[in-house]
Amino acid sequence: MPNVLRVALVQMSCEADRSANTERALALAERAARDGASIVCLQELFSTRYFPQAEDHASFDLAEPIPGPTTQRFAQFARRAKVAVLCPLFERVGPGVYYNSVAVISENGELVGRYRKMHIPDDPLYFEKFYFAPGDLGFRVFRLAGVPVAPLICWDQWFPEAARIAALKGAYILFYPTAIGWHAHEKETHGAAQLDAWITVQRGHAIANGVFVAVANRVGWEGTVQFWGNSFVADPFGRILARASETKEEVLVVDCDLERVEECRRHWPFLRDRRIDAYADLLARFARDDPPPRE
């Protein structure tokens, strides 16, 4: 395993033309390759606008199989550039069965697997339960460019269990392709707090698990949502190594010193001190002791 891994996050805006989005993503991935990146992570559902803002049966036509035309394009790029790619797509498995997925493409251009989003939100303008079945493959770790990494997707980033399981399975870097932003009517009142919470919870995953966290978000207005960008990479101490802007398309290229994983876990041995004998309540939807008797 290399001591230092250079990763790239592609932060871009999306339009209605899927072909244009794919070409833009490829061009930005090419820029990352020229800058020496070994792994490129694209944002959630990068080839389309964020269609789950509405429940529209016609949007199921945007889905495609894995492998399929988009993975083929990025596999060709990966093979030529010798760069691994995390390629998030609206995956069609069969009639009526769809997932929010990441196709994992090695630096040799091989489709080595996929991850299917485990936590599916259903919030105003984020109507994902209408489109996506919950992931059925579990939390997965893949070795890319010689380094074990785990792709997770957007809503997954709020759940400590997802990050912990990926770390326990050996991941050194958690990648979170994302599509998150502000409702127009909420930004003035709640916007700063929402963004801070989003960054803070993911920095917490890095600290609690002694891993790098790399987050690729989209930018731009789509309908009444302003996607807030701010793609970033945090090290195992939670320090933000680099952070993109709120509004601009960017390719964030960051060197991850993998020796920091060992360093962090030696000084903060959270994995060592876990009480695995006392965590059975985590398997319940909501667990509590019996209430005390009334006096």
What integer value in Å does the Rg equal?
A: 19 Å
Span from first to last CA? 62 Å
Oligomer: single chain
Largest pleated sheet: 6 strands, mixed
Counting helices, strands and paired strands, the structural category is alpha/beta
- Name the CATH architecture: 4-Layer Sandwich
**Strand numbers in spatial order across the main sheet:** 5-4-3-2-1-15
CATH topology-level fold name: Nitrilase/N-carbamoyl-D-aminoacid amidohydrolase
- What is the CATH first-level class name? Alpha Beta
Tally of alpha and pi helices: 5
Q: What is the approximate shape?
A: globular
Helical fraction: 10-25%
CATH level-4 homologous superfamily: Carbon-nitrogen hydrolase
The H-and-E topology, N to C, reads as EHEHEEEEEHEEHEEEEEEH
Question: Could you characterize the architecture of this molecule?
Answer:
With 295 residues, the chain is of the alpha/beta class. The chain has a single domain (4-268), classed as Carbon-nitrogen hydrolase (Nitrilase/N-carbamoyl-D-aminoacid amidohydrolase, 4-Layer Sandwich), CATH 3.60.110. Helix content is 24%, strand content 27%. The longest helix has 23 residues, at 187-209. The mean pLDDT is 96.
Key terms for this structure?
six-stranded mixed sheet; alpha/beta; Nitrilase/N-carbamoyl-D-aminoacid amidohydrolase; 295 residues; single chain; globular
Topology (SSEs and partners):
Blueprint: E1 4-11, H1 18-34, E2 39-41, H2 69-81, E3 84-94, E4 97-105, E5 111-116, E6 142-144, E7 147-151, H3 160-168, E8 173-177, E9 181-183, H4 187-209, E10 212-216, E11 219-222, E12 225-228, E13 232-234, E14 240-243, E15 250-257, H5 259-267
Parallel strand pairs: 1-2, 2-3, 7-8, 8-10
Antiparallel strand pairs: 1-15, 3-4, 4-5, 6-7, 9-12, 10-13, 11-12, 13-14
